[in-house]
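Notes, p. 3: input format for complexes.
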Amino acid sequence: MLLRVEDIEVRYDEVPALRDVSLEVHAGEIVAVIGSNGTGKTTLLRAISGIRPPARGRILLDGTSIHTLKAHQIAARGISHVPEGRGVFAQQTVLRNLYLGAFLRTEAERDAALGRVFDLFPILAERRNQMAGTLSGGEQQMLAIGRGLMANPHILMLDEPSLGLMPKLVDTIFELVQRINAEGDLTILLVEQNVRESLEIANRAYVLETGNIALEGAGEELLESELVQKAYLGM
Ligand SMILES: Nc1ncnc2c1ncn2[C@@H]1O[C@H](COP(=O)(O)OP(=O)(O)OP(=O)(O)O)[C@@H](O)[C@H]1O
Ligand SMILES: [Mg+2]
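Output follows (235 residues plus adenosine-5'-triphosphate):
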């Protein structure tokens, strides 16, 4: 087991946003967490990356507790968090944004990672000296993912990478997520509201409903489930 979240509770001002949430991620998997607005998807990723530590429960990476560590220590152990809304620095160049993702790495590691990111996203190589703010929404999402990859992580956590993109680009992003997983042998924890596409690429998935896991199973299994079809696929 690479990552294990055990019965966590996460609160904002004493009010729990997540209650008794447990999930597992095995090495090499794509695991999706799907849920509507405000169900706690972002909170879950923030708990794992140490931005919002859980008030109860445990989070284990390779069997070792990480929920008591600081965010930068968790990042150093190989968990990369690509935040909701991308969080790129608009007034910095594409290259500078990518370098920020590798601040914990040596120069040689950084250059190797940059080569891989440019192979994956040729458009970022082309635009490397442009200000990030001049990129399209899809390109900024690629930059955010690229920055996450620059740390050379074991686990890449993506918070709604398809949000706000036009349908064609949504497909592109999901294809890229699959490629990153397959080619880089990289484990992916994906949080999404785009239910069908997520379940299609996920090995396993969890359905989050207001702070609780309502359902879990293989991606294709959940695509067939009545709850998912009725509540999320409008069938
Ligand atoms: N900083 C905060 N302070 C107080 N409450 C918060 C804070 N952030 C989130 N919440 C609350 O916690 C709950 C879960 O929010 P969260 O952002 O994790 O949901 P989400 O599933 O990511 O939603 P979305 O799909 O809109 O991104 C919501 O009720 C939200 O209002
Ligand atoms: Mg969110």
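The chain has a mean pLDDT of 96.
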